Amino acid sequence: MKFRLDRDVLADAVAWTARTLPNRPTVPVLAGLRIDASDGQVSFSSFDYEVSGRVSLDADVADGGTVLVSGRLLADIAKSLPNKPVDLHSDGSKVTITCGSARFTLLTLPVEEYPELPELPAASGTIEGTAFAEAVAQVAVAAGKDDMLPTLTGIRIEIEGEKVTLAATDRYRMAVRELTWQPGRPDLSAIALVPARTLVDAAKTLASSGQVTVALGGDSGDSLIGVAAGGRHTTSRLIDGEWVPNYRRIFPTETATVARVEISTLIESVKRVALVAERNTPVRLSFDEGQVVLEAGSGEDAQASEALQAEVDGPAIATGFNPTYLLDGLQALGTTFAHLSFTETPMKPVVIQGVDSAESEPDGGYRYLAMPIRLSG
Amino acid sequence: MFVTIELAMLHADLDAFYASVEQRDDARLRGRPVIVGGGVVLAASYEAKAYGVRTAMGGARARRLCPQAVVVPPRMSAYTEASAAVFDVFRDTTPVVEGLSIDEAFLDVGGLWRIRGPAPGIAAQLRRDVREGVGLAISVGVARTKFLAKVASAVAKPDGLLVVPSDGELAFLHPLPVERLWGVGEVTAAALRRRGIQTVGDIAQLGPSTLTSILGKAAGRHLYALALNRDPRPVEVGRRRRSIGAQCALGRGPRSSEDLDAVVVSLVERIGRRLRRARRVSRTVVLRMRFGDYTRATRSHTLTEATARTEDLLDTVRGLLAAAMPLIRARGVTLIGVALTNLGGDGAVQPALPFDERPSGTLDASIDDVRDRFGSAAVTRAALLGRELGPAVPLLPDRPR
């Protein structure tokens, strides 16, 4: 095998492929990065039985072939090479990398022991890369991080024709985002549970490549999701198991009080007041005519309070939240104002949505549901 | 004006507790060697101890050592009742009682000097009260510090009273064998004896650096401080538990994963109820294992939010067990324990979103109710039918806040 690539192109491709390599691989070959060269094309791939990544590039290929080398080492070398064309050449059990006056020789790993990479499933549809990355990030804030509850570490993707609904929850809050895309066929209907971390990473790193193709393959054997753009694709195994059944039911149907607050001031204030909130104690919010009062701490310890301007429609309401859960939702909105809707009882979940002004109605595109903490006394 | 009362600490320890309760309740057992527990020895009367029978010894070995011993099954409810009666006597003696376990406690009687006189007299009265009121023998050590009081009660056994005068503490301590110090078990004692260190006095003479080189830093410093009689801890009344746990010894031989699952289900049911009764929540769940080769391992998991729900606790323990199955298959398991730590009050708990149609926690509360009224065995899981564990070992009650 023998080919030449530009230093930047090589470094980018190798860094993207190597980012999902396991730190402590269960079998040594999984630390490898596979290089395939043929007919003016070079590809770099990685796989750990869960997630695969592959970059294909045009290159000057003198000789075709396939080798497996240490992914971390190759990534470290590629990013430190001088800005000159790089020649990669394999000979027996060795790979030689030459760039300007620098020369590296790596030992190859046994490529015949390397697992077969999963095929990218057939495309289900396409979506604009940055919009997709933003939507995925918005729901991922609510995903669980506890590996003992694997189904909650996923993002649920539901596709009904042009409509895609993403949802995640860790049981204490839930985020749901609706968006439209271009399905491969208009009657497409599918549900998949994708590891949140993998989807966030794939969406983020492919965001700048324009249109992103999403591919769900659940019919034969392993059910997979593939995300592809600009010559790169990643696949991930789906999470087995049932997600929250009939989750839309959890959003309250009636609303008693609606408050609209400017997000950046609310975020700053929650962060300040939360400084005195001990673990498991809430930041308390009391909404009344024209204002919201934030408080934390108790009489026996430090206390803090702050009043902010707010548009409040409906009866006054006081409730409390884990400040982290509240902040995660507010920071994910991406608008100027937060629209909070409460039911009559303070122990029902609050629905937080983004709006552009203190007068506008939410469009329902992104909803963040948070469970309050009981206020003592 | 304050009167400095130097001798104020009592350590009271019931003698051969389970066995003494059996002898109290059955006249035929008095004066005879009694072993409680058919499998592992849970307790042995002094008559049986004279033959070398010890707590935690295998039943077969105990019967070889003392063939004439009467082996009786444990009656945990009787021991719980007896312990409660003894603790009532403790609390009638002084309000400052720190229970260490079901059969021993520290009592601080320093404040009673004006009304009840000096500590040795109070200790003698306490022994009479326990003997007459509950019918059990209790040994009491009296000293200036907790550490000396505990050592003294052990030296006083059986059925004795030992006072360590404040001007004779080192004279009392130094001739004792090293095993009398807290934290010196068989292994440490053997390590010390190999170097000719027999008594507490030898340790004091050795100096801290030699001791840490033999035992390691922490243990070495600890023992050296004790040998020099340094122990300033006060009595902690109603000290709250830092963990709630239960364990189950298993016989040798392979266990199917269904058997192990039944064991952890029983353990979690038991400690979940105790957790809720103490009005507490736990965030960290610990699975303890002892293997066929006597090595041990623990696996723990910290939850996102604290919980008192049996279902959440069980999910976590099952996850830990599943992750440990390769280890269990390779080495065989002889003991499984589950402990709940990282405890907090149940006042400020983050409730979960209502995923289920029924309000969360209602099932646990209903089952707890039924068990409180009709006994632990009144309701059980179908998976546990015919697989109930042995009786729960009595413990000091978990105090609600």
UniProtKB/TrEMBL annotation, chain A:
Gene3D superfamilies to which the protein is assigned, alphabetical: DNA Polymerase III, subunit A, domain 2
SUPFAM superfamilies membership: DNA clamp
Quaternary structure (record): Forms a ring-shaped head-to-tail homodimer around DNA.
Domain called DNA polymerase III beta sliding clamp central: residue spans: 127-243
Cell location: Cytoplasm
Gene Ontology CC terms: cytoplasm; DNA polymerase III complex
UniProt record similarity statement: Belongs to the beta sliding clamp family.
Single Gene Ontology BP annotation: DNA strand elongation involved in DNA replication
SMART domains: POL3Bc
Domain DNA polymerase III beta sliding clamp N-terminal positions: 1-118
Gene Ontology molecular function, alphabetical: 3'-5' exonuclease activity; DNA binding; DNA-directed DNA polymerase activity; identical protein binding
Domain of life: Bacteria
Sorted UniProt keywords: Cytoplasm, DNA replication, DNA-binding, DNA-directed DNA polymerase, Nucleotidyltransferase, Transferase
Residues annotated as domain DNA polymerase III beta sliding clamp C-terminal: 248-360
Protein's job: Confers DNA tethering and processivity to DNA polymerases and other proteins. Acts as a clamp, forming a ring around DNA (a reaction catalyzed by the clamp-loading complex) which diffuses in an ATP-independent manner freely and bidirectionally along dsDNA. Initially characterized for its ability to contact the catalytic subunit of DNA polymerase III (Pol III), a complex, multichain enzyme responsible for most of the replicative synthesis in bacteria; Pol III exhibits 3'-5' exonuclease proofreading activity.
Designated name of the protein: Beta sliding clamp
UniProtKB/TrEMBL annotation, chain B:
Catalytic activity: DNA(n) + a 2'-deoxyribonucleoside 5'-triphosphate = DNA(n+1) + diphosphate
Active site: 104
Span of domain UmuC: 9-185
Gene Ontology terms: cellular component: cytosol
SUPFAM superfamilies in the cross-refs: DNA/RNA polymerases (SSF56672), Lesion bypass DNA polymerase (Y-family), little finger domain (SSF100879)
Entry's Gene Ontology BP terms: DNA repair; DNA-templated DNA replication; error-prone translesion synthesis; SOS response
Keyword Coiled coil: no
Cofactor note: Binds 2 magnesium ions per subunit.
Cofactor(s) the protein requires to work: Mg(2+)
InterPro entries per the UniProt record, alphabetical: DNA/RNA_pol_sf, DNA_pol_Y-fam_lit_finger_sf, DNA_pol_Y-fam_little_finger, DNA_polymerase-Y, DNApol_IV, PolY_HhH_motif, Rev_trsase/Diguanyl_cyclase, UmuC
Residues at the site labelled Substrate discrimination: 18
Keyword Transmembrane: no
Name of the protein in its database record: DNA polymerase IV
Gene: dinB
